[in-house]
Amino acid sequence: xxxxxxxxTGGAGFLGKAIVxxxxxxxxxxxxxSRIFYPELEMMGVMQVQGDLxxxxxxLNAVKKIDAVFHVAAKxxxxxxxxxxxxxxxxxxxxxxxxxxxxxxxxxIYTSSPSVIFDQxxxxxxxxxxxxxxxYLAPYPETKALAEKLVRKAxxxxxxTIILRPHLIWGPxxxxxxxxxxxxxxxxxxxxxxxxxxDTIYVDNAADAHILACEKLLENPSLSGNIYFISxxxxxxxxxxxxxxxxxxxxxxxxxxxxxxxxxxAGMLCEAVYKIFRIKEEPPMTRFAAKELSTSHWFNxxxxxxxxxxxxxxxxxxxxxxxxxxxxxxx
Length: 331
Known about the structure:
Elements: E1 5-9, H1 14-25, E2 29-34, H2 39-43, E3 47-50, H3 56-62, E4 68-71, H4 82-102, E5 107-111, E6 123-126, H5 139-156, E7 161-166, E8 169-170, H6 177-183, E9 190-191, E10 197-198, E11 201-202, H7 203-219, E12 226-230, E13 236-237, H8 238-248, E14 257-258, H9 260-276, H10 287-293, E15 297-299, H11 302-308, H12 316-330
Parallel strand pairs: 1-2, 1-4, 2-3, 4-5, 5-7, 6-15, 7-12, 8-11, 9-14
Antiparallel strand pairs: 10-13
Helix pairs in contact: 1-7, 3-4, 4-5, 8-12, 9-10
């Protein structure tokens, strides 16, 4: 079957837009599903459908006459009411799956996260066989895990799917990781060990992996239901990486250090205060963030290399140069 019409949920987002650009270069008809209209996408020649992922009718309408769906959109974050995360990440994914079945969509490529298997301890060179933990410290990883399970079940029910787990996506136009570090530059402190390693992935490499997943699944439907970690394949100290982001922005490196235990206690305290006073803003520290910042988490991507032919085309150094140039021009 030939794929001509593709839908990207969250096509104006950081990763979504990178995927959209690569799909357009392949002369595909691309539609984006988002809550609002984006003039930038219109200028790129992207069709747009407005709606909420939790709205079943809106999703069903967006998936009409579509051959393949890249379900990228999600509600991220470390804080907020569970129900809000559940509606977007779980109900939204279920709606996408049902729409795919009803419209006889050829395949679904789902963007997940390694946080779905994070058990609060060091994860070093782990592969896709690691089970889900019994407990989560935040609604984002818990609801993404629930959504991932729905996609896996959909594969068992006959929908061709591939699940990708990119970790810490960064690059030009980043609206989450890099801005968060830059905005907190003066108050940031290293948490836990200084030599723990994490995986990251440059945004264009993450987009490449999604395109490869679509192409390889079309060639080999037996890959359906598979999960793949994707990264730079170059574990690095999170503090070295954070300082590289700060350097790209012309800022001083992080100073100061707190233990992982202290950060975790601070997270517990912050969460309690924010719940008691019903503060909607994200706390300066949470238990989940403390555990993420004080542990190693890097993953074996051999399976993605073997099945998808994925290798990061853009090196970390080249990506940092591109980031630096973008930061200097974007302000």
